[in-house]
Amino acid sequence: MNTKTSLLVYAAIALLATSTSARTLTQSTYTDADIYNFALNLEYLEANFYHCAAYGTPISNNNGGPDPTGCVIGNYDSATLALAVELAGDEASHVLAIQAALGSAAIAQPAINLTAFSAAANAAFGTTLSPVFSYATANLTFLDAAFLLEDVGVTAYNGAAPLITDTTLLGNAVGIGLVEAYHAGIIRKTLYDNRATLDQYGIPVGTVIDTISAARGMLSASADSSMNSADEGITSDTTGTETETIVPSGAYHIAFSRTPAEVLAIVYLGSPSTPGGFFPNGVNGNIQG
């Protein structure tokens, strides 16, 4: 693909991202570095999650900041472990790519709490689950946790694309966002194939994922006046017929997008202006809730 064609493709993607919602992303005062640093927070979270799940250790942190809490190795079969290993490598590379693009402007790793998956699960089901939910327990809990994060990453990159002005940085952001979409796709397909399986709490996987999706949508909707609750689980029973929903999308089947505030509401597990959840001290950088 030549340079001219590449720029046209990236511009078209940005235009489509803008058209996915009637909301106006008004953060025009944010610089490209601000946007990249916001994304870097999410990449730190995802990279540490997968690295801990696969290896029991956090990523190699060459830019400062504390190691995550709740880092434990997963109890998975060989196929799930292989997936965790591959995704850990991808996300660690995303961290390095963004750090390289930002240079000395790259933020340090924020405080990350991987035990927040338990709080997220309790909140989604409106009860204190017993045993305590952990991504490390089994294949299904890993996939549940990955589902929670991956769709957020896709919508965050889609929401950020129209705000990036530098074409090289836009191209890299689109590329990372597309890989996140691949990740989300394999996670969603694997969960769908196991939708009738009962998890450790005796709940069908399809119900678990649809409940997480609904909770995620409610958090997003609470973030600002736009009330953006767009989200999809993996099944739909409203008509009495189960419908496969591997690819979540809105009008014209264009991917959902989220604003920074909507993203923060999800990863903070509450108000976008109140740190908590996966980021107990908040995200680093200029973009805050």
Features:
289 residues; mainly alpha; 8 helices
The count of strands amounts to 0
Q: Can you count the helices?
A: 8
Distance between the termini: 38 Å
State the share of residues found in helices, binned by percent.
40-55%
Strand content: under 5%
Secondary structure class reads mainly alpha
Main beta sheet strand tally, sense and closure: none
Query: What is the residue-mean pLDDT, rounded to a whole number?
Result: 87
String of helices and strands: HHHHHHHH
Low-confidence stretches: 1-25
Please tell me what the overall shape is.
globular
- Give the C-alpha Rg: 18 Å
Q: How many structural domains?
A: 1
Tell me what the structure shows.
The chain is mainly α and about 290 residues long. The protein has one domain (about 30-265). About 50% of the residues lie in helices and about 0% in strands. The protein is built from eight helices and no strands. It has helices spanning about 5-20, 30-55, 80-100, 115-125, 140-160, 165-195, 205-220, 260-265. α2 (about 30-55) packs antiparallel against α3, α5 runs parallel beside α7 (about 205-220) and α5 packs antiparallel against α8 (about 260-265). The chain is globular. The N and C termini lie far apart (about 40 Å).
